[in-house]
Amino acid sequence: MIKLISPPAILRDPHLETPETRETGDPIFSVTLEFASLRDIKPLEDEIAKLMPKNGSSPLRKLATTNGDVWRIKVRRKEAPKVVAADQKESYTSPLRDGDHIRAQMGLVAYDYLGGGVVAHLGNIQFLMHSDHGPVDDLTSPEKKHS
Question: What is the value of pTM for the model shown?
Fold first, then answer.
């Protein structure tokens, strides 16, 4: 497992207070980290490449939006993560919202079943600031939207 801390990211689709239910019925806590800059995700992309089996599936997805490309990675864990404040000294107790700016501890692990790939595990979260950014719902490129 490769352990790292993500660059600052926009929080999307958080399941931190109420977990999602997996196909097996088990609860899973998760968040999606969104990055708008290729420069920001380059170190993460390099670490994924170190683990990636031939023809494997990457957890990092590039999406075209009307505001440009974004990169997303979903990270999960079985227990609720600890959330710390920006100063890293105190717990952050307010609920995190879609669009907040955060950093996350992550673990990357290769797997070799069902075609193989890399999966991302969630560690703790550092809250950086609230944001006015809403969710990116329109994932079509501008050219396709107006055709």
Answer: 0.83
